[in-house]
Amino acid sequence: MIIQDHSLVNEFPNQVELIQELNLSDDTFHKLYNEYHELDREVRRIEEGLENTTDEYLESLKLKRLNLKDDLYSRLKQAESA
After folding, report:
1. Dihedral sign, CA of 63, 65, 66, 72?
2. Is the pTM of this model over 0.90?
3. Model confidence over 13-63: pLDDT tens digits?
4. 3-class secondary-structure state, position 49
5. Distances in Å between the alpha carbon of 70 and those of 10, 51, 53, 64, 78?
6. 82 neighbors 76 (Cβ within 8 angstroms)
7. How many angstroms separate the CA atoms of 74 and 78, rounded?
8. Beta carbons within 8 Å of 26's beta carbon, 6+ residues apart
């Protein structure tokens, strides 16, 4: 199975500089960014077979990751228009 890369830089390649800037200057963005990447790492470990869990738990992690990505994207769009 091919495991997709869901890092924010990969998800939003046109906004790499803004991601880096907000990660350094906005404490809330930084917290959400770290939380997103921790979830992504956990999902990847499960998908790679390094950790076992239920399908329901994996799906709940993916949903949390998606919600965080939506929140981070909204913050990126707000910063772009500011």
Report:
1. positive
2. no
3. 999 999 999 999 999 999 999 999 999 999 999 999 889 999 999 999 999
4. coil
5. 14, 26, 25, 10, 12
6. no
7. 6
8. 75, 79
